[in-house]
Design a protein that fits this description.
By secondary structure, the protein is an alpha+beta fold. The protein is globular. The protein is built from 1 helix and 3 strands. The chain has a single domain, classed as Ubiquitin-like (UB roll), CATH 3.10.20. The protein has a 3-stranded antiparallel β-sheet with strand order 1-2-3, with helices on one face. The structure holds zinc ion. Residues 3, 5-6, 8, 36, 38-39, 41 line the site of zinc ion (ZN).
Length: 76
């Protein structure tokens, strides 16, 4: 399978997935993904996306808690 965006080849890689839910940033580390070697486009399989969403909604016992710096672009 080739990248839809640029036609490049994919590598299987573990990536960090970030989503915001109710004003809280949720980070899921080591998510298996296919990443385009040329443009960096990242694709997740259906079951992987479902598992990320389930994890984000349930938010039970995270591996660790991190502090996150938030900037307003207008103030930078
Ligand atoms: Zn690509």
């Amino acid at each position: 399978m080739k990248c839809d965006t640029c036609g490049g080849n994919f590598d299987n890689r573990d990536v960090t997935y970030r989503i915001e839910l109710g004003g809280r940033l949720i980070v899921v580390e080591n998510v298996p993904a296919r990443v385009c070697g040329q443009c960096g486009e990242t694709y997740f399989s259906g079951p992987t996306v479902e598992r990320i969403q389930k994890t984000a909604w349930e938010q039970q016992s995270p591996s660790r808690i991190i502090e996150t710096a938030v900037f307003d672009f207008a103030n930078t």
